[in-house]
């Protein structure tokens, strides 16, 4: 396979920068740039030169001979001084010697294609890099280590054994015992149903842990939306005044709620007949509402009877938050009619944070947590739907053939998660999200 090269460290100036190569020509490029191929898996002090022999830098070289490398190919890493020009010159020298610049995620893609990682593990590499909380980072590390894949493979193995039972009964219909209606098959079906439900719950929790929860703070002008954003974020991000219409744009902050990343969006107050600039802010507010996972409708508790805006998304959960209990004397906390807080004093904040975690269906799964993506949730849901369709076909029509086929389709859907079943289009979409050099 051709040899690729890229800078593997973030843009900017640093003490150390890494240039990584992977492919068949890595040893030859090492000889040209270093004078020799370093001893595998041993840090070697070296002078880095271009093809004409001009010295570019000096640093540490690491060489990993195939197949004992991240990509499964020959890999060379040049640990140089972290100036942009130094690293660019090393990449340029490598390309002049036969390498080509790597595409986003191409190193990890090669690791997948060379069976070093399955697809869920490969995606966990990007999730670990982008993790927004310590809990998310630990969960991504477990996925990278194969925890999520093992759970999926275990469920797929249950489906295989179930198919074997069903297909054996279909192949030998002359037997006196009806294996399609015996207790052993019923027990296996129940066990599979329970496994689908359990993994589905934990996969959704893993998706929330990875993606976070997008919460839009909405309400009438002067209800205390910006004050609440500042309170939750611990920063004076939003300007707070008594003048209605102060917030003209969507302000976003990310907070950590017991390991769950929550993106808060403070929006312009929703009202009729705003001025021209404020109207644009309201338009942007409604745009943010359309993509929200949840809405906190902030109501001034000192002005009772104000109903939530009629234009809120119908399919998004809306929580009414009664603010300014410091003025009304109401007890802060959660009630049937919503949450009661004071964004001025912080009263009721703990109840609000617990409510945010509950909105996401989030719970700290401890050492059992792993990260997952929306496509994993969707693939698992399709697998569960095929399983349930087959189960109903057996229960209602004794259709063992339909059950066997639905089990096969369920198994294929699970295979999409780990890459046992994949397409070039899917791989291209996944790895295009990676940074170059990973």
| Major sheet strand order | 8-9-7-10-11-13-12
Radius of gyration: 28 Å
Distance between the termini: 17 Å
Structural class: alpha/beta
Helix content: 40-55%
| Arithmetic mean of pLDDT | 85
Number of DSSP E strands:
13
Number of helices: 14
Q: Show unreliable segments.
A: 238-248
Gross morphology is flat
Element pattern in H and E: EEHEEEHEHHHHHEHEEHEEHEEHHHH
Largest sheet: 7 strands, mixed
Q: How much beta, percentage-wise? A: 15-25%
Characterize the structure shown.
The chain has about 450 residues and is an alpha/beta fold. The chain has 14 helices and 13 strands. It has helices spanning about 25-35, 85-95, 105-115, 120-130, 135-145, 145-170, 185-210, 225-235, 275-290, 325-330, 350-360, 375-395, 400-420, 425-430; strands at about 5, 15-20, 45-50, 55-65, 75-80, 100, 215-220, 250-255, 260-265, 295-300, 320-325, 335, 340. A 7-stranded mixed β-sheet has the order 8-9-7-10-11-13-12, sandwiched between helices. A 6-stranded mixed β-sheet has the order 3-4-5-2-1-6, with helices on one face. Strand 3 (about 45-50) and strand 4 (about 55-65) form a beta hairpin. Helix 6 (about 145-170) packs antiparallel against helix 13 (about 400-420) and helix 12 (about 375-395) runs antiparallel to helix 13 (about 400-420). The chain is flat, with a radius of gyration of 28 Å. About 40% of the residues are buried. Mean pLDDT is about 85; it is low at about 240-250.
